[in-house]
Amino acid sequence: MSSSHESHEAGGHDGGEHGHGLGAYFAVFGALLVGTWLTVWIAEKDLGAWNTPVALGIACTKATLVVLYFMHVRASSKVVWLAAAIGFVFLVILLGFTISDYATREWLEIYSDPLLSR
Amino acid sequence: MSDSHGGAHVANLAHHFEDLEQQREAHTLGMWAFLITEILFFGGLFAAYVVYRTAYPEAFANASNQLDARLGGINTAVLIGSSFTMVLAVHAAERRRKRAIFGWLWATVVLGAVFLGVKYVEYSHKWEHHLIPGPNFLFEGAPGGSEQLFFALYFAMTGLHAFHMVIGAGVLIWLSVLALKGRFDLPGRNAVEMAGLYWHFVDLVWIFLFPLLYLLGRHA
Predict the structure, then answer these.
(1) DSSP character for B17?
(2) What is the pTM of this model?
(3) Whole-number Å distance between alpha carbons of B173 and A67
(4) Could you read off the pLDDT of A58-96 as tens digits, one per residue?
(5) Can you tell me the mean pLDDT for B168-172?
(6) Do B50 and A87 touch (CB under 8 A)?
(7) With helix as H, strand as E and coil as C, how does chain A read?
(8) β-bridge partners, B139
(9) B46–A70: do the CB atoms touch at under 8 Å?
(10) Higher pLDDT residue, B136 or B148?
(11) CA–CA separation, B176 vs B174, rounded Å?
(12) Res. B8: pLDDT tops 90
C-alpha cells in the first residue's frame, strides 16, 4: 500500500486519478510540436559533426516529455520509474557498446574489416 | 479491503489483488515489462543502423535525401497529435465519461490512419523510383550497394513501426466499442491507460526515426 499512496500524492488529485491535468498535456503537446519544428529547422544548418548530436538531443528531450507526462511515469510509483528507466538503460548498453566498437576501429588502424574498407 | 481472499467483494477487483490500487500498479508494471522488450526489439534495428551508418556515412546521407522530409515532418506532427488525443482518452477514462472516451479513441485512430496513409504515399513513391531493396533497386541510375542498405533499414524500421500502429489502432477500436457498452469502470479504465502506454511508445520510436532517417543529410 505504501507505494500506491505515493502515486496519489504525486498525481495531486483525488483517489481516482493518476494523470497530470489538461494544462500539462497541452503544454507537452505544444513543446513536442515546437521540438519537431526545431529539429527540421536545425537539420538544414551545417553544424559539422554536431548535426546528429543536436538532433538526438532534441529527440531525447521530446522522448522524456512523452515518458514523464503522456505515459504518466512522473506521477507513478518508484517501481514503475525503475521499470521505465531499466528499458532505456538496456538500450544504452546495447548502443553504447556497439558504438564504442564500430566508431573507434579506425583509431586502431584495423582496416581489414570489410565494413570499413570504403 | 484488507480481507482479500474470498471476503468482502470489491467490484472489478480480481481476487488475487489486495485492492484496486495494487491491481492498477500490477497492470502498469506488466505493461512496462512488455515495453522493455519492445524497446530492445527496435533497439536491435537502431544498432544495425548505427553500425552501417558509421561504415557508410556519405551513402546514408545521399540515400536519406531521397526521402520526403516535408511528409515525414507532417507525419511526426500527426503522430504527436494522436498521442495527445490518446492522453485525452485516458483522461476521460479516469472520469468514466464514455462518450468522451469513444470520441478521443476514434480521434486517435483517425490520426493514426492519416499517418499510415501518408506512409502509403511515401512507400509508393519509393516503388516508382526503384528504391525498394532487391534486384530492381536503382540509385541515381546505378545499382547502389550501400544506399540499398539504407533503404533496407528504412523499410524494416518504418515497416515495423507501421505494423505496431496497425495493431494499436485495432486495440483502440476494440476499446472504443467496450467504452460504449459502458465497460469502463475501474479495470476497464486501466485498459485504456495500458493501450495509451503502447500508443505513446510507438510515438516515441517515431520521434527517433524521423531525424535519423529523414534529416541526416539535409545540411550538406
Answers:
(1) S
(2) 0.87
(3) 23
(4) 999 999 999 999 999 998 889 999 999 999 999 999 999
(5) 96
(6) no
(7) CHHHHHHHHHHCCCCCCCCCCHHHHHHHHHHHHHHHHHHHHHHCCCCHHHHHHHHHHHHHHHHHHHHHHHCCHHHCCHHHHHHHHHHHHHHHHHHHHHHHHHCCHHHHCCCCCCCCCC
(8) B142
(9) no
(10) B148
(11) 5
(12) no
CATH of the domain at B79: 1.20.120.80
Residue B11 resides in a domain:
no
pLDDT at residue A52 above 50? yes
What ipTM does this complex have? 0.87
Rounded Cα–Cα distance for residues B180 and B101 (Å): 9
Question: Is residue B10 situated within a structural domain?
Answer: no
CB < 8 Å to B220, chain A: 46
**What is the span of the domain harbouring residue B196?**
20-214
Q: Name the residue with cell 511515469.
A: A73
What would the grid cell of residue A8 be?
Answer: 496519489
Which residues in chain A have Cβ-Cβ distances shorter than 8 Å to B27? none
User: Among partner residues A18, A66, A79, which is closest to B200 by beta-carbon distance?
Assistant: A66
